[in-house]
Specification:
Blueprint lengths: L1 H33 L2 E13 L2 E12 L2 H21 L7 E3 L3 E4 L14 E11 L2 H9 L2 H5 L14 E3 L3 H26 L3 E10 L3 E4 L13 E15 L1
Antiparallel strand pairs: 1-9, 2-5, 2-6, 3-5, 4-5, 7-9, 8-9
Length: 241
C-alpha cells in the first residue's frame, strides 16, 4: 500500500514538474518573441537657398607718415562704400568698423629696420538678405582693384558667407518625412521576414546638417548660395508573428 502511495506521489510530482517546465518554456518563448525588433533609418533632404549674406571687405594700408596713411585708408573706405552703394545696398546694410592702427616703432619687442612704420587695417561689413545681389557684387569686385583697393585675405578668403537661418521652418516637415521613410523600411523588413510590425520601441532623432548642394573640391558650405539640409531618424520597431 505504501509503495502504491509513493508511486502515485512520484507521478503527481513528475507531472507537476513537466507542466511547470512547459509553462515556463512557453513563457520564455513569448518573452523572446516580444523582444524581437528591427532598427531602421529614415532620411529626409531639402534643397534650400541661403537667406542671409555676410561679407567683410578688409583692406590694409601701410606708410611712414601717419596722416598720409590715414588719408589713404579713408580713400579705400570711400571706394568700397561707393562700390556697395552702386550695387544697390543701403547704409543700414553696411557697417564701417573702427580701424586697427599699428606703429611698429612703438612695439616693445620690435627690432631691425622697417620699410614702413605704420600699418592701418579697416573693414566694411555687409549684411544683406538679398543674397543674389551680394553674389553679383562679389563677381564685380575686381573693379575695386582697378581703383587701387586690394582686399586683404589675412583672416580667410575674401568672399561672402551665405547662410541659411530658417532651418526651424523646415524641421517639422523633414522630421515627419524621415519618420515616414523609416516606417516604410521597417514594414518592408517585417513583410520579408513574415512578421507583423508593432509599435516603436526606441527612437533617436539625428542632428540636422547643412551641406553644400554641389560637392566642389575645396569649397566650403558657406561659399554656396544653394545648400542641402539633411536629417536622419533612427527608429527601432517591435516585431510580432
Amino acid at each position: 500500500m505504501k509503495s502504491i502511495l509513493a508511486l502515485t506521489a512520484a507521478l503527481v510530482l513528475g507531472l507537476g514538474i513537466a507542466l511547470g517546465g512547459y509553462l515556463a518554456g512557453d513563457g520564455f518563448v513569448k518573452s523572446r518573441l516580444g523582444d524581437r525588433s528591427v532598427s531602421v533609418k529614415g532620411l529626409s533632404e531639402r534643397e534650400v537657398k541661403a537667406d542671409l549674406a555676410l561679407w567683410a571687405l578688409r583692406f590694409v594700408v601701410t606708410g611712414n607718415d601717419l596722416a598720409e596713411t590715414q588719408a589713404e585708408v579713408k580713400r579705400n573706405a570711400d571706394v568700397v562704400s561707393n562700390f556697395l552703394k552702386s550695387h544697390g545696398f543701403s547704409e543700414d546694410e553696411v557697417e564701417l568698423q573702427a580701424p586697427q592702427v599699428t606703429d611698429r616703432l612703438a612695439q616693445m619687442y620690435s627690432s631691425g629696420q622697417f620699410d614702413t612704420r605704420f600699418i592701418i587695417a579697416q573693414q566694411l561689413v555687409l549684411r544683406s538678405t538679398d543674397v543674389d545681389k551680394v553674389a553679383k557684387a562679389n563677381r564685380d569686385s575686381s573693379t575695386l582693384v582697378e581703383q587701387g583697393v586690394v582686399l586683404s585675405n589675412e583672416y580667410g578668403p575674401v568672399r561672402p558667407s551665405y547662410l541659411f537661418t530658417k532651418i526651424a521652418d523646415v524641421k517639422p516637415q523633414m522630421i515627419e518625412e524621415a519618420t515616414k521613410r523609416a516606417r516604410e523600411a521597417a514594414e518592408t523588413f517585417a513583410a520579408d521576414s513574415g512578421s507583423r510590425l508593432g509599435g516603436i520601441k526606441r527612437a533617436w532623432q539625428g542632428q540636422f546638417s547643412i551641406q553644400p548642394r554641389d560637392e566642389i573640391p575645396g569649397a566650403q558650405e558657406t561659399e554656396q548660395v544653394m545648400k542641402t539640409v539633411r536629417v536622419v531618424s533612427t527608429i527601432e520597431y517591435l516585431l510580432a508573428d
